[in-house]
Amino acid sequence: MAPTVLITGASQGIGKATALLFAKNGYDLVLASRRVEPLTVAAQEVQALGQKVLAVPCDVKDPQQVANLVNKALAEFGSIDVLVNNAGIYSSGTVEDFSLEDWHQTIDTNLWGYIHTIHALLPAMIARGSGTIVNLVSIAGKVPVSYLVPYSTSKFAVAGLTESMHSELKPKGIHVCGIYPSVIRSSLLERAIFRGKDEEDATARRKQLEQVVSVPVVEKPEDVAKAVWDAVKNQRAEILVGSASVSKAAYGLMPGFMQWVFRQGFKQKT
């Protein structure tokens, strides 16, 4: 019987790249995403690799939808060996210009979305005495980044969630690990929040990120997928992907200077 992996945010970007890599390595898959059409396409690509796949439309912000996702997954495959929490939203802007709705959208997706899947699936893993939970975090969960305050808040929370669960669940046979990429050349722009002093400022922030992700040296979704596979295969507690390790090291040595660099890099109008 093939091992199984459940991936959220699986219709594109990091989630889809991870799904294809696990399928190539003999895993059956449960794919979840809010958008039905790209989710269907991703499922077809997995099937073309010869693996079983269950695609379930799901908004991870809704605990009932997540419970339905997990129930369907367990009914189909009997057990889930690996959970990859990947669904997320990026938010950039001046902290005073984010609405409470922006804050909730960011934290409800990036943090509560992970909590919902863990809460729904963890009892089955504990009952079996085995399982792996992979949380996609971000370098913004290790290094505070100006003008990404709601996003960085959510990712610092996910980092704490990951590390504390790793400590508690290891004796129960559950491995928990965190993946920390920097900016990735992916589809994050499609669901990002940009806020500023005015519409021109917000638009400039979007264009800035578009320029960053178009740089050839920026890591790709496949790079993050390889890190997820490494974490699962080799039971790694955390992996910093590519340039993220440089950012963390530089911040550790020169926190004040790096804060200045991030302020200069992300600010628009003053």
Show the helix and strand layout.
Layout: E1 4-8, H1 13-24, E2 28-33, H2 36-48, E3 53-57, H3 63-77, E4 82-85, E5 91-92, H4 100-128, E6 131-136, H5 149-169, E7 174-180, E8 193-194, H6 199-213, H7 221-233, E9 238-240, H8 244-253, H9 255-266
Helix pairs in contact: 1-7, 3-4, 4-5, 8-9
Provide structural commentary.
- The chain is α/β, with parallel strands linked by helices and 270 residues long.
- The protein has one domain: Rossmann fold.
- The chain is built from nine helices and nine strands.
- The chain has helices at residues 13-24, 36-48, 63-77, 100-128, 149-169, 199-213, 221-233, 244-253, 255-266; strands at residues 4-8, 28-33, 53-57, 82-85, 91-92, 131-136, 174-180, 193-194, 238-240.
- Strand 1, helix 1 and strand 2 form a beta-alpha-beta unit.
- Helix 3 (63-77) runs parallel beside helix 4, helix 4 packs parallel to helix 5 and helix 8 crosses helix 9 (255-266).
- The mean pLDDT is 88.
The CATH architecture would be 3-Layer(aba) Sandwich
**Low-confidence spans: pLDDT under 50, at least 5 residues?**
none
What is the first-to-last residue Cα distance? 59 Å
The biggest sheet, with number of strands, parallel, antiparallel or mixed sense and barrel status, is: 7 strands, parallel
CATH topology grouping: Rossmann fold
Order of helices and strands: EHEHEHEEHEHEEHHEHH
Task: Describe, in short, the structure shown.
This protein has nine helices and nine strands. It is an alpha/beta fold and 270 residues long.
